[in-house]
Structure formats: C-alpha cells, structure tokens
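can u pls check wat happens w/ nicotinamide-adenine-dinucleotide
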Amino acid sequence: MTRPAGTGELAGTVSLITGAGAGIGRAAALLFAEEGASVVIADRDADAAEAVANEIAAAGGTAIGLRVDVTDEASVREVVGATVARFGRLDSAFNNAGIAPPGSGVEQIDTADWDLVQGVNLRGVWLCLKYELEQMIPRGRGSIVNNASVAGVVGAPGSAGYSAAKHGVIGLSRTAAAEHGRHGVRVNAIAPGLTGTEMVRRLMADGVIDAATAASRMPLGRIAEPREIAEAALWLASSRSSFVTGSVLAVDGGETAL
Ligand SMILES: NC(=O)c1ccc[n+]([C@@H]2O[C@H](COP(=O)([O-])OP(=O)(O)OC[C@H]3O[C@@H](n4cnc5c(N)ncnc54)[C@H](O)[C@@H]3O)[C@@H](O)[C@H]2O)c1
C-alpha cells in the first residue's frame, strides 16, 4: 500500500529501475513506489514494464513503463533522458536487469553465450551507470544500487560467465563509488542469494538448480522472496544509508557466511 504523500523513505524522489518488468526488479519497483518515489520501470519487455507501471498507478503510486535494452547504448541514453524529461531529475537507480544462461563448465562455454551474459550483466550495468552519473554528478547528489549476486563474491561452478560478469559489477560499483563520492553520488552493490523469480524457476526446470539442495545450503534454510532483496535495494537507495558507498551488501540467507 502506498503511504500518504510525502511520508515514505523515498518521498518526492525519482527512481529508475532496470529489469523491473519481473522478479526482483518488479518487487523493487512496487516497494520504491510504496515508499513515495516516482518510478521509471524499464525493461526489454515493454508490455511487462507497462503492466507493472499500471499496477503501481492502480495502488495510488506514480510510475511509467519504458522499453530499454541495457546492452544498447542509445536505448540506455534514451531511457535516462526520458526519465529526466518526465520527472525533472534522477535521484536513485537500481541497475538490476540481468540474465542467467544455462550452466556449463568454463571450457565448454560458447563464445556467443559468453558475450551475451557479459553484454547484459556487465556492459549493461556500466552503460546505465554512465548515463545515470551524467545526470547525478552536476546535481551533486544521487544513489545508485547495482544488482550483483553471491556469484559476484564467490565462484559459481557451472556459471563462469555469469560469475565473471557479477564480479565485474562489484568492481565497477566500488570504482564508481571511489570516483564520485566527492560529487555526492553513492554507488553500492547488493549480492543476493537464490531468490524465487522466473530466472530461478527456469534454472530449476532445466535441472541446473535443485531447489531442495539449494535451500539446505542456506543457514536460513530457504531461498529469498523477491521483496526481501528489494528491501536491501531500498535501504541503499534511500538517505537512510547516507554514509554507505562502495559496499557490497550480501542478501543471501547467510550462504556466503559459511
Ligand atoms: N533470482 C536470483 O536468484 C538472483 C540471485 C542473485 C542475483 N540475481 C540478479 O537479480 C537480477 C534480476 O533477476 P531476476 O531473478 O529478477 O530475473 P528475472 O528473469 O525474473 O527478471 C529479469 C528482468 O530483466 C529483464 N531483462 C533481461 N535482459 C534485459 C535487457 N537486456 N535489457 C533490459 N531488461 C532486460 C527481463 O525482461 C526481466 O523482466 C539479475 O541481475 C540477476 O542476475 C538474481
């Protein structure tokens, strides 16, 4: 439920969320809107983006759905430009769009598959950062959250391309934080563990992930709900985390504590 005007954690602010048509991005879009942000729902799937924007509007929030392909520089430039044209500025961004290709060993990865996962999961985050920072630096404020993964912190057998890209997202986040802290812009990464989204349902259906084994590996004994990941992104996007930049927040049920 949307809070009364002016009272949420992101009241009066403008947020851009990529990959917000489904899964973790969708949960973040709903939560950010509940907390008072005007949200741009950006996704490769324009219909899904539109549907989430309509859901937010029906609950009394403010959102627009836009198509973006984060691998395409012109598309990213356009969506950031459209955000500012519509809402006047950009206060926070959650660079979340990502893919998880079916598993294979390091020596078996097809070159095209390697390029695809780097293109979406790493180049895509860099392109978003580039155009978001361009808006935030002159204003001297902003908070960017990049969605990495536990696979960006530890190795992920069977998912080398994904793991390499997610390690890259963390390096990129730390570097951007170091470069732009003095400009008032904070950049952090989150490292979610296994979360119940379409991405994971597909990997389970393909036999890449076994749900029961995965849950038993977690100290909390279960996988995450998308909203639990969104809560971490909300905290980092909001001024509640005003002295946090360059950090990697594990949201993984304790998986990487083992
Ligand atoms: N689900 C998990 O267990 C898990 C764990 C750790 C990290 N993550 C990361 O969280 C993010 C979201 O994952 P999810 O599980 O919600 O996935 P999902 O597949 O449920 O949703 C991803 C969304 O991103 C969009 N998308 C894909 N490629 C895009 C592109 N090129 N441009 C714009 N949008 C694009 C899709 O259309 C989809 O709406 C990803 O970066 C993923 O790597 C997920």
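Strands lie at 14-18, 38-43, 62-67, 92-95, 142-147, 185-192, 248-251.
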